[in-house]
Design brief:
298 residues; alpha/beta; five-stranded mixed sheet; 7 strands
Amino acid sequence: METTPRRRALGKGLNELFSTEVLDFDSLEEKILTETPKEEIVEINLDELRSNPYQPRVVFDEKSLEELCQSIKEHGVFQPIIVKKSIHGYEIIAGERRVKASRMAGLTTIPAIVREFDDTQMMEIALLENLQREDLNPIEEANAYVKIMDAKGLTQEEFSKIIGKSQAYVNNTIGLIRLPNEVKDLLIQNKISMTHARILSKISDKDLIISLANKVVNEGISVRQLEELSQGADVPKVQKVQRKLNEESQEYKFIEEKLCEHLGTKVRVYKNKMEIKYSNINDLNRILDILKINNLEK
């Protein structure tokens, strides 16, 4: 089978670790684990480890780390981390949470597999682990998207296909970078929703963005109310999108956007029908998991 230009863009070394068009971190990690002989799994001092310099995650959930710490105390580290040898010690490629939790548990060493990856591959792997294990907040996710696209020269369309998300989702996520820092903090703290933030990101006036964000927090205005405020004639600096939609279509549009945000893929609602796009069986099972439906794998 001929390799497509998009697959080649991923880099030969990393590309060989994936068997599908949509990158999947669990497949990558499982392949490394299954192909590594037990004698190549080594104990490395935790003091010799440092974070992947391309790690997009800044905030780690303390409750989740504590739960993992307790599990490690009782059962040990459930699987080796993956590291790269550096000038001073090792850089963590996969397993940042396991390292942090192991330190909390009072361990001094951790089982590890040493592999060689270039800088771009390390960036991709760090992004994949966090995105597919839902560890990034929306701002970290947006920054990670931009870093990957810039490093690999990918368009939003190409990137959305690689990570199995809709192009609209990628575009809306990247748009969050334009928000003022005060509003980003509100999003990270879950004081405003992703949908509120997406609407605010379409506004070019930073003072207006902050003012409307405060209305969401203090007055509890809904997504629909915020959308009406942001598109009002008395708001001169809103980046308006002209829509020729009747009332029923507008209702569908709102539902489509909510479903797209929740499922991380393109959704279309029309004429008593609903279409949910998926890339492959893994992506379908991911969507079914979100919908709390047993997956289709036998």
